[in-house]
Design goal:
By secondary structure, the protein is an alpha/beta fold. It folds into 3 domains: about 80 residues, Urease, subunit C, domain 1 (Roll); about 110 residues, Diaminopimelate Epimerase, Chain A, domain 1 (Roll); about 230 residues, Metal-dependent hydrolases (TIM Barrel), CATH 3.20.20. Helices cover about 30% and strands about 25% of the residues. It is built from 16 helices and 22 strands. Strands 6-13-14-15-16-17-18-19 form an 8-stranded parallel beta sheet. Strands 7-8-9-10-12-11 form a 6-stranded mixed beta sheet. The chain has a 4-stranded mixed beta sheet with strand order 3-2-1-4, with no helix packed on it. A hairpin with a 5-residue loop joins strand 1 and strand 2. The model has no long low-confidence stretch (mean pLDDT about 95). The structure holds zinc ion (ZN).
Amino acid sequence: MLIRNAEVDSGTTTDLRLTDAIVTGIGPQLEALAGEEVLEADGGLLLPGLQDHHLHLLALAGALDSAACGPPQVRTAEELAQSLLQHAAANAGDSEGWIRGIGYHQSVAGDIDRDWLDRLLPTRPLRIQHRSGRLWILNSCALNLLCAGDDAPLERIAGRPTGRLYDGDEWLRQRLGRRLPALARASGLLASVGVTGVTDASPHNGPDEIRHFAAEQARRHLLQDVLAMGGAELDHAAASDGLRIGARKLYLREASLPTLEAMRADIMAAHAAGRAVAIHCVTVTELVFALVALGEAGHQHGDRIEHASVAPPEVLPMLAAAGVTVVTQPNFVYERGDAYLAEVGAAELPWLYRGRGFLDAGIALAAGTDAPFGEADPWRAMHAAVTRRSRNGALMDGAEALSPERALALFSASAQDPGGPPRRIVPGSRADLCLLDRPWREARRDLSAVRVQATLKAGQVIWQRQPRAPAI
Ligand SMILES: [Zn+2]
């Protein structure tokens, strides 16, 4: 394939030749060969395909098949009822008629329970997930279907299950059986925003998930490269070019931290197995605990902190000393900023989802959207990293703003080196590419307005925007 008139790196435009999966030529006015496909770039910026450094593929696929239950789509109890009923009417559900909702937040209808859901949908099994990803709320029909007996890890009041299930994903998965969702829709969505590689940060990834990713790639339902985190059971999992095993994910919860000794042992065991660790930290306590444990265990290249949602100045030297990469979610500034401004105390607000502060302290920084818990659009995330504006336009600590170039770099490094230098397109590069509808000097003015014109994986167009109808 010949790509004509694309901006590559330098601000000037050039042509590129792709041979199979590789960029084999870059230069002005390359001559099309007989039978060669030509893609006109019209001066648009051509980038290495983006890497979303933190998302959850299976949950994203599930979310695309679920009813919205929280902001911004759903803000009131009436809207929640409407969303669930519409979804139930439109979907016969899966084989057992399950209805699934996601993104619930108590600002919608308070601390709802099985009785609330029963009044709405008494005859179909229904489960809705809290936005935090830590809580499911089930109706009575769902509880019956799951045979939720006394051993079920459900919240109870006076002995009766409320329908609220905290940190019960594993239990739910076992009860529901292992039906892993098809990934074509999720993959297509990612391709449409220029993503050619993802890091799946799900802590429960095991051999079944890895086999599913591989099978979906083989069927060409899943078009992106995957770096899959997971637990120790992946230490010896088979990898391929397009599917690699990443860091061991260690998930901290402030309310039930392990002992420091246990944490240190987990980190050392991962390192001994040749794997880095990726530690989920959303509170200051979790972050400090992780850094103390890393300090004692010793760090290894590739160790990461996921989220580092609250990072006050006193922890920055610890982060720098630990040599870890912070993988942040700037899209939360936009998506959740208004809720943070209402709910987070003044002492922590300035240190939420920082950008500039990490870089100035010499800490390697990368980003992922955390889809489906965030929207799977790196361009919106980059825009939020630059503007620091919430959905309602509130400014979230402007001193943390990044330049558009630095924001782009958050999604441009390789999967294996998330805080490292942005990949570049040179002869010999893999032809994993993302073509924008405009040159960089225009794109950088408003990254949220950027549209991806075409996405290529291994030299093949995996997504292309339909040409606009000519104006009459
Ligand atoms: Zn996540």
